[in-house]
Amino acid sequence: MLSRIGMGVKLPIRRIIFTETEKFDGEEFRLLTSQEVKQIAGRAGRIGIYDIGYVASMNSDIDFVANRLESDDAEIDQVIVGPGEALLKVKGLPLKEKIALWSTREEKLGYYRKKDVRDYILILDKLKPYQLEEAMEWRLMALPFDVNNDKLLTLFLKYVEECFVIKAQELSKPDPDAHGLSFYEEYYLKINLYYSFSKAVNLAVDENWVHQSRKRACEEINALL
């Protein structure tokens, strides 16, 4: 739930309860930073709905949360950079190899750190059988979803089939798999994937359905909380 709350799913939340104070950042499990704690805790108490918000914690972590809330944020001394579209102009190599080579090239400026490209490589491997143009591979590779979520990756590949094999004029709309907090959280992310994939490949999007479905998912999540 941390990622959903942190990314700003619009919920009328009065109380945030930290059930854990660690997260996996793609490389390792680590403690939440002061910025992350403030971002998540700041969701408690929606302006115009509640006058005050409450923050609590399980597993005796409240002192850690309080310390992070009161701490000054660490100064930013590094910026993560990803590969640029200039790679598409390089001829003679598949996009996967160009991405891999880019990731090994040392940055001249010390305050730049290169983005982990393993998710890009995974997507490009999945797209290889479809023999898409590089520009399309690039757009799909850059879609904002968690490729390590099996259900989201399955939906992504379903959309690839619909778009490039079946030649559908519009992608199929996702449905919630069941009733429950985690299912509605995942459903919200599936709606986002439907929208971003459709936009990336220039297919028709049911904007009203996206709006209403996001709203309904948020209402269901709020009711379950």
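(the above was protein one; protein two follows)
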Amino acid sequence: MLKVIVMSFFILTSCATKPKIIQTPIIKGTIAVLNFKNNSPNKNWNYMESAVAEIFTSNLAGNSDFKVIEREKLNKILEEQKLNQSGIVDENTAVKIGKILGAIDIVFGSITQLGKTIIITARVIKIETGEIYAGETVNSENEEELPEMVKKLSDKIAASLSK
């Protein structure tokens, strides 16, 4: 009889305890950042295509919410796919590159000059659907503000992706 009482006690107390809540870790969004296309009439700005991408990548890499694909790995894939020479990356090409890299999202954009104003745009494509689901723009009249512009742009994109 004592055995039955003790067993009943253990069964009742084990059922009465609250279940443990197990939190699954947040999976970082894997992002690739392509070169930004120079759409300005100023071909001396071609250096900005990779410079903007490098700054943007570094800024995103500093955000613990994202896993950013290393630019060298990205450049190797672009070379293998013979896409780095054409300089043309549209939404379909970006999705193809993202799938090869195992990215969830891919960022690409452009640098434009309208009058004295420098405009940098960034768009994010969800690789799974091929849809552009985030886009931001920054501008300035001073080329020397480029690093601050890109920082502001990457912060805006990061905020859009974190929603």
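Reviewer note on protein two: The chain has one domain: 27-161.
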